[in-house]
Amino acid sequence: MSGGLLAGHVADYLESLAPPWEYPGDTVDTFKAGGPDTVVTGIAVAWLPFTWALEQARDLDCSLFVTHEPTYYDHHDNREELFDLDIPSERRRMLEEWGMAVLRCHDLWDRFPEKGVTTSWGAFLGLDRLVDQGEFARVYAVEPTTARSFAETVAARTAALGQPGVHLVGDGERRVETVCIGTGAISPYLELVAQFQPDLVVCTDDGMDYWRDGAYAVDGGPPIVVVHHGVTEEPGVANLARQLQAGFPDTPVHHIEQRCMYEFIGPTTTGHEERKAGGRAIGDHPQGGRE
């Protein structure tokens, strides 16, 4: 690109992918650090800008970090009182010092067809018989099975992203022929049940409440399989990185892979050793902050 690639060119490219839908008026898909005039030496793409992920992007000579989720612990990243805390204020100072721009791609990628968050999650689970859908939901037909067996299938797949087990709420022997999935934290169980009448709903830990949704499932509603929010969106983030690489073939694009944020601990669990063997989880920070 004549004159060099700027962060604004990347933002414009992503916005150009939006039709036929339009960005919401209060879109969060804006710059959180730096701005459109930042010269792009490389692009890092990740679900969340954890400190270790930002440091990895710096070490990869990426001056633009494209994140799906917030930078400063608030959906709109506009709560100035948060900068009274050490970590947000240090992050802002660090990004300014590095000259790194942070651009969020959330509203677009939650809605984007085929490669976006929802469809990528369905494909990751091996779901391919779409029978119904909403803006943030997909309903798939599956071969007749039980809720427990389907939950085991999900767990077998999420293990690759650091989540070796999922929660199953409700009747594990319930017959399942249709499955509904949401989009990240947008997995409102009762609304999905009312709209689609699925046999089972896959929700995220940020997208359902056990006191309400779990109770409904236990009392006879469709069973719920609960998966970590980040795990459900990681396949879509990987596709976002591929989309950017296709759009800017002469610029290095790095997908900074992230896994389940939490560990599964039991009385005999040696979780720390297993985590070291299995790779970094979403929230892990390497000693010294560098790879």
Let me know the average pLDDT. 92
| Estimated structural class | alpha/beta
CATH fold-level label of the largest domain: Udp-n-acetylmuramoylalanyl-d-glutamate--2,6- Diaminopimelate Ligase, Chain: A, domain 1
Largest sheet data: 6 strands, mixed
Roughly how many Å apart are the termini?
A: 31 Å
Cα shape: globular
Question: Can you count the helices?
Answer: 10
Number of strands: 11
Question: Which residues sit in consecutive blocks of at least 5 with pLDDT less than 50?
Answer: 271-279, 285-291
**What string, H for helix and E for strand, traces the elements in order?**
HEEHEHEHHEEHEEHEHEHEH
Helix content: 25-40%
Corresponding CATH superfamily of the largest domain: NIF3 (NGG1p interacting factor 3)-like
Strand content: 15-25%
Rg over CA atoms, rounded to whole Å, is: 20 Å
| Domain count | 2
